[in-house]
Each structure stands twice: as structure tokens, then as C-alpha cells.
Amino acid sequence: MKKFRAAFVLTVTMLLPAVFPVFAENREEQGQNVITVWNMPPVADRWQRTVWEEERQSFEKIYPGISVKGISREYKPQEFVSVMASGKGPDIVRIPMAAIPAMAKYGFLLKLNDYAEKWQLSDSMPRIMWEAVKIGNDTYGIPNDSYFTTLFYRKDIFAAAGIETPPQNWRQLIEYSEKINSKLPDTWGIAIAPDMSNFMDFIWQAGGDIYSNGKLDLNNRGVVKALKFWNELKWKHNCMPPQNLFYANDVEQLFSAGKIAMMLGTAKQLPVMSRRYGLDVNKVEIVPLPAGDTGIQAWHAGGDAFIINSGVSQEIKDMCWKYIEYILSPLNQLGRYIRLKELNAQHPADVMVFPGDFSCATNLLNRPEFANVKGLLSYAQAEPTYYKWPMIKEDFNTYVLEKIFINEDVDYTQVLADFMARVEEEYHE
């Protein structure tokens, strides 16, 4: 592996122009082996589409017998199940790592053990990412990109309130929010959506857990403590705007408009917020989530993984693997970084560079854009690799988290006991 990395460093400058031609003539697919790939960026996402097309052309130049047919279609659970069950699914698609257990249970995903074990980058992939795509001893996905839950804060609001540093713990999150609202009466510290995808981080920060020893447990002291903290952010400390419930798009709009100073999020949300709500990303800083009152730092890691359709021929499976291997190669990933940097310089309002844009097997954390999030992996935890987990998460949002924002005097213990009884009845957990 060390020799491979050294060779990569020495040859990247020479090889990059050959691997990344600006444009290449489209070839006829007749007589070609065609693989169908979802997740091609739409035409409206002009620059990401440009990078995708350049990668496709470079791959086809290296493998002239394979043609890649891209489709601008994202993973949506019900649609994906329907198209796969009909036998008309794609050969390759990226799906959320959290979706892998359910899709594997349906039999749609190829076991990738043989490919993954022989892959020369397998040891470079963080262990937590492999854990997220495995069920037992079987690997069903190849981690592509990654994300971490982080804290966004508005530098302009912090400066106006006389705050110089981001909050380091729960206590400071409250103190800063109260200070912001006292100095800027129409602005609040934070707004939080009733979403387990964010709440689980606070459970870990409180010293609790979600799933251990093969058993779901959402009725423990850590969960109670985290619920109490979220409830008091709303009702006791006046950290949030007066609206009872906020959903993801509400939070994004409030943050973009400068009505809240902080929000929980992942880096990939920022370009979307910029396009959709006019957020000035130059006013935003990305930092780790504050530690809990226990001093524990924790957040969850996730991302997308490449999967291969289990129903295609062995020949197509092998071609799909060549494509995945090429896209995730250090040479291609570094080329992607350079290309995105180039496009960012030309179109700063439209192209942004974030850690999640790159393979988690490629270490780009020494790049200046990623300085604030370097080391996040050390404190990251993975969501349960359990096929019922997505459904249980949705129920937790509705039957637990919404209640703590609607009802100031909620009985946390009773709400959790009722929820676990519901889980037992509906999911036999």
C-alpha cells in the first residue's frame, strides 16, 4: 500500500491531463458494453454535471469497450424498490448507507466481498465507513462520499452580538443564544427540526446509546437527558423562535435569512441553501458540534455508497466494478478536487468545495478548506445497520421529538415508555 501511494504522488502530475481531457467526442454505443448509472447531476446543476461528464469520458477512454449511460435520477426508496422489482433497475447507483440493510434484505444488492477484499484501497477506507455498508460478514456497498453532522454559525451575527468563538459545549450554546437574542431581539440562537438524524448525536453526547448488543434501546438516561436539553432550549432558555415546530426547510430558510445564528447540518446543504434561499456562504463557518454536558464529543457519520444490481450478468458486474474502482481512485479524486477548485475560482457563487465531495478513502483533510473539520472522524459514530431503523427513526420524530417541542411540560419518561411499547407492537423489538 505504501508503494502504491508513493507511486501515486510521483505520477499524478504527469497523468492528470491524460486522465482528464477537457472534452472527448461521444462514441456510438452500438457494439459497446453499456452500464447504466444513476445519480448523474441534472442539466440545471451545470458545473457538477460538467465534472461528471469529464469523469465519464476519461473512464471510457481508459476502458474503450465500456460505455456509461448516465441517468439524472436520485435514490428515492419507493421508486428504487419499484424499479428494481420490475427488473429495470440501474446497474450502478449510489444510495444512502443507512438504506443498505433494507435494500439488501429485498435481495436487490450484490454482495461485494470478493471485489472489496481485493481492492487496493480497502485499507485506506475508514473502518466506520465499512461498518456502515456491512451486514454481518457481507459487504453490500462501497462507500463513496461521507458527511458528518456539524454546526453552522453565522459569522456576521456572532460579530454583531460580540461573540468571537463558536460554542464548545451545551452550556455555551445556551449562553450564546441568550446573548444573541438580547442584543438582536429579532434574531434567535438556533432552530432545530424534530429529526432523529440530528438527535442521535445528542444522545451520544449525553452518554447514552441507541443500539447495542443487537438490541434497540431508546429508553435510557442518555436519551432522557438529551430530550430534556432540546425541550429546555425551546421553552426554558428561549433559544429558538416562537414557532413550535420547525422542519428542515424552515430551519434552512431562517438561517439563510439571518433569523437564527446557528443550525445543525452537513456541508452538502450549503450549496443547496445558496441556490434555493440566497444564503451568502461567505458569512458561514462550519465547526464541530458542541460537546455534551458530559464533555463527550460525538456526531454521526454517514454518506452514500455505490451498490451493484444483483440481477445483472457477471460480465456487467465486472464492468460496474471497474467503474467504481476508477471513480474512487486517488488519481480521479485528486483530479476532481483540482477541477472543483478551478471551477470555484471561476464561479464562486455556484461551485463550492466540501470534504463530502470526495471519496472517504482519499485523505484531503490537509486542504485549507477542511481545516475546521479535520479530526471529526475520531469522534464519529455510525447509525445502526438495521433494516427497520429508518422506519423507527421516522416514528421517533413523530411520537417523541415533536411532542417535546409542542408540550413544555412533557413527561420524557412516559413518552419514551409509550414509544418503546409502540416499537414492540409494530416492529417486534
Blueprint (SSEs and pairs):
Layout: H1 2-19, E1 33-37, H2 46-62, E2 66-70, H3 77-85, E3 92-96, H4 100-105, H5 113-118, H6 127-132, E4 134-135, E5 138-139, E6 142-143, E7 147-148, E8 150-154, H7 155-160, H8 170-183, E9 188-190, H9 196-205, E10 211-212, E11 215-216, H10 221-235, H11 248-256, E12 260-265, H12 269-277, E13 284-287, E14 299-302, E15 304-308, H13 314-327, H14 330-346, E16 380-382, H15 389-406, H16 412-427
Helix pairs in contact: 1-14, 2-14, 9-10, 15-16
Strand content: 5-15%
How many DSSP E strands? 16
Helical percent range? 40-55%
Distance between termini? 43 Å
Instruction: Flag low-confidence runs.
Output: 1-31
Structural class: alpha+beta
The CATH topology of the largest domain: D-Maltodextrin-Binding Protein, domain 2
Oligomer: single chain
Rg:
23 Å
CATH A-level architecture of the largest domain: 3-Layer(aba) Sandwich
CATH H-level superfamily of the largest domain: Periplasmic binding protein-like II
Average pLDDT score: 87
Number of domains in the coordinates?
A: 2
So what's the overall shape? globular
Strand line-up in the sheet with most strands: 9-12-8-13
Major sheet description = 4 strands, mixed
